[in-house]
Structure formats: C-alpha cells, structure tokens
# Entry
Amino acid sequence: MTAGTIETLEHYAELTRAAMAEAIAGGEPADYLYDLVRDYAARKGKGLRPGLLLAAADACGASTRTALPAAAALELLHTAFLIHDDVEDHSRLRRGRPTLHELHGAALAINAGDALANLAVRPLTSSAFPRYRSREVLAELRTAIRQTTEGQALELGWRRHAVVDLTPLDYLELVGRKTCWYTTMAPLRIGAQLGRWQPEPAALDRLGFLAGCAFQIRDDLLDLAPGGQAGKAPRSDVVEGKRTLMLIHLLGVAAPEDRAWLVAYLGRAEDERSPADQDRLLTLMIDAGSLAYAERFAAVLATTAQQSLATAFGAVPPSPAVDFLRELIDYLVSRTD
Amino acid sequence: MTVREPPGSGDVTASVDDTAFADEALRVAGLAYDRVMAGVDPRLDTMPPELKPADAVRWIGDRVTELVAGFAELPLDRLVDLGAPTPPPAGVVGTPEPRGEPLTMNTARGRLGEVRIWIHPVGEPLTGTLRFRLTDLQPGTGGALPGGTAVFAPAEIGLPLAAAASVLLRYPVPVGAVPGRYHGLVLAGGATDAVVPITAVIT
# Structure
C-alpha cells in the first residue's frame, strides 16, 4: 500500500475506534463487564472492515459522517465475535496481548461477548443515524451474523467430529460464510447501500466473496510462515487442526500411510499434538505441494476479484475513494504481513 | 452462477496448465459462492424507491437534518470565506483540511486538552475583533461537560489580519469526566459570526 493509502486507512480506523469508544463508554459493573467489553475494542487492528465500508460509502457518494455509525456497529459486532471465537478456539493471543478468557476466565469473557453483541447496534440507534438506514443496515448485520455463525458451526463441527473428507468447495463455502461475509461482503454492501450511486450489485458481491477468500487463504498461509503473524500465536491453525485449503489438499494427495497418520493427528486433542507432530504436518504440506497449491489458488481468486472490482465500480464516478478501495483490495488479496 | 468476469482482461500467454487450474479454481469458487448466496437477496435495496409515505416523510426530514448538520461542520475559514488553508508555521499544528470533519482534541481526564484554530485573511478584509467561546461538550449518552471553563489564547484577535493568525483553545477536562467522544462548537463572534465544530476524545 502507498503511504497515502495507509494514512487514509489509519484515519478511518481512528474515527471508527472513537465512535466505538463512544458506544461502549461507561457502564457498571466495570470490573467484571464493561472494562472487558472495552478491552478488544481498544486494541488496534488493521481496520480493514471500517476501511472498506467507509471507502465504499465515500465512493458511492455518502459522507464519512453518515457511514461512521455503520462502520462502528460492524466493527463492534466483529469484536464480539472475536471474544467468543477465541474461547471456542482456545486462542492464547489476540492482537499481541492475552485473549480475554486468558485474562478473566471463559465465563466472564463469554458474558462480555454477549454484552458487546448487544451494544454493537447502539451506534445505529443514535439520533444522528437516520431510521430508514438503520433498518437496512440492521438487516445486513443480521445476515452477517447468520452467515458467520453458520460458518463457525461448520468449522467447529468438522473439528469435533474429526471430519476429513472435505474438498476445496467445502473450504470455500466455510470461508465464504465465516470470513467473507463480515470482513469484505458486508462492509462493501453496507457502504454502497448508504450512497446515492450504486455499484453493480452482483459484481460487488463477487468482489467481496473472491477478495475475502483470497484474504483468508493468505491468512492461513501466513500462519505457517516462520514466526507466524504479528499478534497471533504461530502455527495456531496447525495446533487447532483447522481445515485450511492446504490441509484439505494434503488429505487429498497424501500417501496412504501419511494420510492415516494425519487423520490420527486430527483425531487427537489439541494438547496431545506435540511440536514434533506439528513439524511433521508442515513438512508433509511442503512436500506435497499444498502450500504452493494454496498460493496458486489464492492468486487466481485475487486476479478475478480485481476484475470484479472494475466491473462493480465501472459506473460509479471516479474518485480518490475508488482508488483507495482498489489499493485496499490489492492489499487484501496479496498481503504478506 | 459463475464468479468469472466477462472475457477481455485475461492473460492470453497463460499456459494450458495455468488455464486449467484457474478454470477449476473458479468453477469451485462459483459453486461455493452459490451456496453462500443461497437465501440471500443479492439486490442492494436503495432508498427511497420503496418507501411507504410515512417513511418518505422521515427520509426527507433526515436529508434536511443532514444538510443542516453539514453546514455546521464547515470549518471557520470556509464560513467566513477565507479560502484554502495556508500551511502553518513549522512546529505548529494546523487546522485540518476542510473536509467537513470537526477539529479533534485528544486528551484525558484531569488533563489540559489543546487544539489550535487557524484564521486566514482571504477575501474582503473585515475590521474589528473576533472573540471565541466554547459550547458545552455533549457526549453520545450521559452528562455534558461545561464549555465555560475553556480558555482561548489570545482571548481575541484584532482584524484586519496581515497574515494568518491562530487562537489556542485550552480545555481543562474534569477529573470525573466519563471517557468517550464529546461534541461541541467553538463560536466566533464580533466582526463576524462563525462556528467551528469540535470533537473531544477523552480517555
């Protein structure tokens, strides 16, 4: 990303964090609930979702002021998901710090996630946000919640029952529901909805889906990189037995004895997956070309996502916001950090 | 449904292997997309075509409110027709670009918040003085913070100006203030009346 794009992204993120802080300010009991609710919201993320939403709104002719409550609501909802997601995945780190359940225990963390999911709609009920818009944005948020929880259910169910007969289609459906919808599709749909110029809707959805899938595949690949990703425990996907595109590819091409070992590995509890086992799994993926396969797959989706962007915004007046959106999508689908 | 865009931008030098791989990847992606979109209305509902009469009235009211609120967000130099901002002297924080966003003051409970407001001598010269006042700072919910404790340095600015001038707003944040985002206005009166929106982010 160029310096200007990074600056704009940070500007959007800062505005959104301030709007989020306003929505979750105060409240008692602070020690057991509202301080927890504010914890993740105050940790700095990349701000991709608000960046996409506010840029899409700007590109479509809506002001940042108009779209900001929607960006804050979506980011608060995302934060509520993260709290529960970390509990479900037994994650230890979130944005470089211990997860909420590590700090306060699972019970208080889950309760804080519930409270945050409720507070997430507060920005949409402010008098500054028109009622007809809040109705439409709420409908989008409900769709995002449905898709995300359905995707999460698939992932957790596959792990619980040690499901291994999976295909890239299953993976993309999971990612489409769990990641794409609230990371890319909902921000683009909501941002566009708030404006007076409408992008081509089907191309906009394709853009969100393809960019979100490419983003998630890159994210899964980065988890395997030496040192992992900033703010996350390295190889957490391998430890959790997450069904990534690389794992699904390996299950499809591994020699029978390797596949049998892999199935046994996935059937074990997380704390029984030793570092040596994790090393072996990673070596198998490399030898089988699973990482290269995933890289190639992501590249195809990324190229098509960029074509969808051109189609979606072809009839929208050119603007710095459209240029920013193009750069942000480029970053999403080709990120290396 | 396919996720492939219409032909025209493809890489014609791609190998057969690459093309076959891409075709298969996009075929699978298309099937997954169909599964994800099942039951979802792909149409972006735009307003106001399907509004009921009562909603239409609200819609018009909302747009008027937005329009009026938009005027209040214009920076002082726009309202007094002072044109584009002049770069501030080195080492001095200048007024944000006139993008419709309010001035922001980041501060904390019990601390002294500061923000500088710039005034530029562009257009018809005005004579007299400009004096400033801060309204109460209103949060999204909860109690307001008093604006009367704000101090402006200098307290007034004499017009006409030979060059850009600035006034420094200092605001002592009460120790008991609830952290959050507060909104207020800096009112300029005297030779002309103008309004600068300000947002105080208190931690």
User: Anything to note?
Assistant: The longest strand of chain B covers residues 180-190.
